Amino acid sequence: MLSQQELIKRFLDIRIWKRGDKRAPHKPLLILFMLGRVQRKEPRLVTYAEVMEPLQWLLDDFGPPRRSSPEYPFYHLAGDGIWEFSFTGAHSIVGSPSARFLLDNNATGGFGADVYAALIDNPSLLRTIAFRILNEHFPPSMHSEILLAAGLNLDAVEVETGAASASRLRDRKFRERVLVAYSFKCAVCGFNVWLGRVPVALEAAHIKWHQAGGPDQEDNGLLLCIMHHKLFDRGAFSIDHNLQVMVSDRAHGGEGFEQWLANFDGRRILLPDRPQYRPGDNYIDWHLREVFRGQGKYAAG
Ligand SMILES: [Zn+2]
Q: What CA–CA distances, in Å, run from 79 to 13, 82, 83, 237?
């Protein structure tokens, strides 16, 4: 019988393809999608043909701007002790199977029987694992949208571990330093509201995500109102090396689009007083490469 600790550890220890600091959210997104299925008590195993399209959407919406392949995690997750993979036919697999191979050979995957049973038995364990996976791979501003897209419901998740409170303390200190560096104003729109002595709805964004190894330093921070923080983490806009706002040509909309995004395109952000706190070029590069969607109208030089 699998203990809760052992199960959580297996999920957190999944091996992630690494090349420098490139994002590879394939396995985390497949896991979240499948946890949603378990939560709805859907069958344990699923064919590749069934998950291909929803997984591609998740990768397109929440993965890096380059094209990501859903066949990769469907096969490779089997090496991590939580996933089962099988196919019909007498072939053997060398390297990574193609999507065509998975479809032609009726490939099937899903959590192992012991893992599935433990998750079905214990809904709060399922929520804890989903929450930890999210935290490990995505900034908090994206969590609710990923959950919605994966069909997962994490209401009533109570995870009060040492690691969680240590990271909250770390976040608070970072936020305080970035608030001061940017004089308590959103770097894009200047938003600044106080309730008594407390600034409201202002957040310190990491330019290079904490989840990708971005440091808690002022030159990797941007003070943004909650709206611009969300739009920035989703890659609806970035900043170029002249520190001008660059809105993605893929962002569009009606009410609010002009007001929150288009109006700022090409405008310089409000800079911190101290030059050493200005956004670092290497962090901007990472955001342009790994997060920013599409092209800017003022293409970065
Ligand atoms: Zn703002």
A: 11, 8, 7, 37
